[in-house]
């Protein structure tokens, strides 16, 4: 049972490091995945006056 727990801990550690690496290195290799939408949004605003 201890071996299974150790394997799961190692897998969790590797997955965490992979997600962190993707967050920092991902925009360099996959810029389209990290790009914000580039369309202008306009919306009328009505302010109440007292």
Question: How would you characterize this protein structure?
Answer:
The protein has 50 residues and is mostly helical. It has a domain at 2-27. Helices cover 64% and strands 0% of the residues. The chain has 2 helices and no strands. The model has no long low-confidence stretch (mean pLDDT 90). The chain crosses the membrane at residues 7-25. Keywords: Membrane, Transmembrane, Transmembrane helix.
Question: What can be said about this structure in brief?
Answer:
With 50 residues, the protein is mainly α. Helix content is 64%, strand content 0%. The chain has a domain of 26 residues.
Q: Helix and strand succession? A: HH
Helix content: 55-70%
* Shape estimate: elongated
Largest sheet: none
Query: Which spans of ≥5 residues are poorly predicted at pLDDT below 50?
Result: none
- The DSSP helix count reads 2
| Head-to-tail CA distance between termini | 70 Å
Mean pLDDT: 90
What is Rg? Answer: 22 Å
Strand content: under 5%
Question: Total number of β-strand segments?
Answer: 0
- Helix vs. strand class: mainly alpha
Task: List the topology elements.
Blueprint: H1 2-29, H2 31-34
């Amino acid at each position: 049972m201890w071996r299974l727990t150790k394997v799961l801990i190692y897998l969790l550690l590797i997955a965490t490091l992979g997600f962190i690496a993707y967050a920092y290195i991902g925009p360099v290799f996959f810029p389209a995945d990290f790009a914000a939408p580039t369309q202008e949004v306009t919306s009328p605003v009505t302010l109440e006056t007292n």
